[in-house]
Amino acid sequence: MQNKMAKRGTIAVSALMMLALAGCGAATSNSGSNTTGTNTGATGTSTSSNSASGNSTSGSGTSSAPITVRYSEVIRSVFYAPAYVAMQEGFFKQEGLNVQMVTSEGSNTGAAALLSGSADVALVGPETSVYIYNQHGSQTLKVFDQLTNTDGSFILSKKKINNFTWQDLQGQSIISWRPGSSPQMVLNYDLKQKGVNANVITNIGPAAMVGAFESGKANFIQVYEPVASQLIQSGQAYYAASVGKAIGSYPETAFEATSSYIQGHPQVIQDWTNAIYKATQWIDSHSANQVAAAIAPYFSGTSNSLLASSIQRYQALNAWKTPILSPSAFATLQKVLIMNGTEKASQKVNYSAVIDPSFAQNITK
């Protein structure tokens, strides 16, 4: 049975990756890699929220023994601070969950883990649910809790530009992410909305992006925190624009699980949603320095002052505003996918097919 599930997951995600690659035709870009990540992530790095062990089966936060949830995060970024706070401050533990985390370095890898049964919950781009649904396989992925409600990447410039406007990117080269990835597609969408024609470079691996920028491969780069603050503080780059601010409300990353897992473990899903909500509330009531201290164990080698700067940048964006992925935000997502060519207009997916807002609605009543 496990071999059959793994095979189905591999086939579905291979198709997902092919669809994502098709999106590069919608932008001026080079052919790209199928991996994504940040310079701060570590593929396969495992972290547990407490010392309990066991397999995730069934139960709730009220059970005496914690339930293990195998969790796959898409990349390691300050953008996902609530998840680290939930682990470090014990909110998962309060809900009776023992979280075992790995960093997948890509939504496609995280989706594969869910479909193969090697992960229970994944933090990925909601577009993966759309791709998988359109493959008409035996399994679907559903969003049950939105973590970030806008894009979290920033455009940095090699030279200081006073009063930057998006027109300053006209004819310029921008080091971006792999074709079909959420940041690359949102950047393409923003550029088109602004009427800007730029050369979006997508064939540089995540670990090599900063080095390529510093060596003069391009005058602009699209990065997440804390990499953005690291480059700015080192004098290697200057802040230009927020990709998220340009697009507004956009469901960049969300917690997902297979439909069968959600159906079989509704209390675990509710407990997870509760813990993340507690973490976002905790962040709202604490200073950036306190949040930085809480997430510091997940960013070895990065100073607390730099982490605090990253937190402030995301707080200014209201990045963790609501756990509910709304129908209007989902409509924007599909508009971006269609513009980038990773979804056909005839393939538009109904909201309820890939989104289950009931768990997030329970905590916001």
Protein topology:
Layout: H1 2-22, E1 47-48, E2 67-73, H2 81-88, H3 91-94, E3 97-103, H4 107-116, E4 121-124, H5 127-133, E5 141-148, E6 154-157, E7 173-175, H6 182-194, E8 199-201, H7 209-214, E9 220-223, H8 227-233, E10 238-242, H9 243-247, E11 253-258, H10 259-264, H11 266-284, H12 288-295, H13 304-316, H14 327-340, H15 351-354, H16 358-364
Parallel strand pairs: 2-3, 2-4, 7-8, 7-9
Antiparallel strand pairs: 1-3, 4-11, 5-11, 6-9, 6-10
Helix pairs in contact: 1-4, 2-11, 6-14, 8-13, 11-16, 12-13
How does this structure look, described?
This protein has 365 residues and is an alpha/beta fold. It has two domains: 2-151 and 250-364, D-Maltodextrin-Binding Protein, domain 2; 154-247, D-Maltodextrin-Binding Protein, domain 2 (3-Layer(aba) Sandwich), CATH 3.40.190. It has helices spanning 2-22, 81-88, 91-94, 107-116, 127-133, 182-194, 209-214, 227-233, 243-247, 259-264, 266-284, 288-295, 304-316, 327-340, 351-354, 358-364; strands at residues 47-48, 67-73, 97-103, 121-124, 141-148, 154-157, 173-175, 199-201, 220-223, 238-242, 253-258. Strand 7, helix 6 (182-194) and strand 8 (199-201) form a beta-alpha-beta unit. Mean pLDDT is 85; it is low at 1-45 and 50-59. It is found in: Periplasm. Its main location: periplasm. This is ABC transporter substrate-binding protein.
